[in-house]
Amino acid sequence: MDAPAFPKRWKVSAPELIAETFSSRIWKVRLEDGSPAIVKALKPFDDVEDELRGEHYLAWRRGEGAVRLLGRDGHRMLLEYGGDTLLSEVLDKEGDNAATAIAAEVMARLFSPSKHPFPSELQPLRERYASLFKKAATDRDAGQASIYVDAAAIADRLLDDPHDVRPLHGDLHHENILQGPRGWLTIDPKGVLGDPGFDAANLFYNPLERDDLCLDPERIAHMADIFGKTLGQTPVAMLDHAIAYGCLSAAWHHEDENADDENRELSVAAAIRKVRLSF
What we know:
- The longest helix has 21 residues, at 235-255.
- This protein is an alpha+beta fold.
- Helix content is 47%, strand content 18%.
- It has two domains: 8-80, 2-Layer Sandwich (Phosphorylase Kinase, domain 1); 85-277, Aminoglycoside phosphotransferase (APH), C-terminal lobe (Aminoglycoside 3'-phosphotransferase, Chain: A, domain 2, Alpha-Beta Complex), CATH 3.90.1200.
- The protein has a five-stranded antiparallel beta sheet, with helices on one face.
């Protein structure tokens, strides 16, 4: 593929395509001083608004706990190079508890106070939960007392009485937390506004290929304890957020007719619910 023409004002060189997904192309480039940076070029796809809201989130966070937004041009972003070490690599080498502790530290930085007003472009958390509420309503109408129905009731309660309302990363997991010159930072936010428990929730379901961890009741209880302390919430609240989030994710997979991933998320949600009942 030919190298794209990036805006001259960015003064970048030596572009190297390092990743391509359904939503974007990721280029590693050199800044004028020779240091590395990333250009993320979004493709036209259904959820492009998620990525654009993430851009507003990064601009607001100003490098605290997340990579810096160095420039923007339409659907392209010039980003700080976050580093080479993924949190998943720490999990593999040092164990899950070490990775969970780092994730908690990163969350503490992400939710540190900012003197700048929240971006108006962020997606309200209730809006993000629309697919779960839709699936729960369908099940209720069909007379099915499914886990979706229970999870929607939990989500509704959490949304009605949030512990706190802050800008959220929206997609926090082991592949979106990496280590570089400035320590551990997050990449690829979605830009949501709501209770920070939502950001902790996704981590219970990750890494995706490690069901031995995600279904382990001791790991689930440990995460609930660590993340609860980090966010000033109870372990029970963390578990409720995790149940709601997992069923939201499953509802998205249901809409995509992806039964394997839907069932996987529901199995983890059921394991979390079992731990929740023991409190």
